[in-house]
Amino acid sequence: MKIAPAAAMLFHVLFVSIDGGACLARAETLSVSVSASSPSQGDPVLVEARADFPVDKAELAWKGRTVPMTAAGKGRYIALMGVDLGETPGKVPLSVLATTESIVMRSDLELTVVAREFPVQKLTLPKRMAEFDAATLERIRAEAGILEKIFSITSPPEWDMPFLRPVDDFRPTGFGARRVINGEPRSPHAAVDVHLPEGTPVSAIASGTVAFAGDQFFGGRSVVLDHGGGLFSLYYHLREFLVAEGRHVAKGERIGAVGSSGRATGPHLHFGVRAAGGRIDPSRLFGEAFR
To answer: What are the pLDDT digits (tens) for 197-210?
Structure first.
């Protein structure tokens, strides 16, 4: 992977500290590049750090979360962060921390988040699919809580690029759609839908560990993969899944098949990605910057 020069920014603003708060003057340089300095809502952003000194640990600090960066060559480290689809447009700070011995070097920069227009989807569904009793609402809340707990975990990164499309015929629609169901506004669609025949194979976009494999009220038969470094991929409405929680899967390995389980009006794959906590448009992972 190479970050396109036209989209890159370079920063040499360094703060050096040791235990006890003392500062040292050093000649080492920590430079940071990003794949987009003005990303849109829902965009993934690749962050690359280069250090001309030995680094024991490199980390990305973003939106109150710290995620480990992965080594990608001598003195080079990368991480993937996500600008949430609901992020407020404007300036957002980002930092890279590099630790060597007892010294932490820090490079700070700002991204400018740009507003993105999302489609509006007006859906008419049967009452049983749009209005829920107390027991069902409790189930929905419990399932959401389980997923948020999973997404809060930051494991060592094991993803690499390029990412693979989850299905061969990948024609995504609907990311960020502001849904109005039976006349009532609902949460935005934080994934893409890929409409395909039932039974179409679904594969892992990168290596990872199965963080969730089970049945959900909305998602039906679902799989969530933890690729490390705060990166997760989600596959919902499956006809069946072929992996179990805790199992390691390889990039491109088949994990299930397209179906219509859960709250679905027909066979399709609901495919989502979280990057460092942000709900991103997964189709943008297959662009030039991530090859």
So the answer is: 999 999 999 999 99
Q: What is the pLDDT of residues 5-49, one digit of tens each?
A: 333 444 444 444 445 454 444 557 889 999 999 999 999 999 999
Q: Which amino acid is residue 157, in one-letter code?
A: P
Rounded distance, CA 130 to CA 150, Å? 26
Q: Which long-range contacts (CB under 8 A, 24 or more apart) does 129-135 make?
A: 129/263, 130/181, 130/182, 130/184
Is 120-290 assigned to CATH 2.70.70.10?
yes
Q: How many residues does the chain have?
A: 291
Residue with tokens 């990164």: 157
Residue extents of the structural domains in the chain: 5-113, 120-290
Domain 5-113 has CATH 1.10.10.60: no
Q: What is the DSSP string of 227-273?
A: EETTEEEEEEEEEEE---TT-EE-TT-EEEEEB--SS-SSSBEEEEE
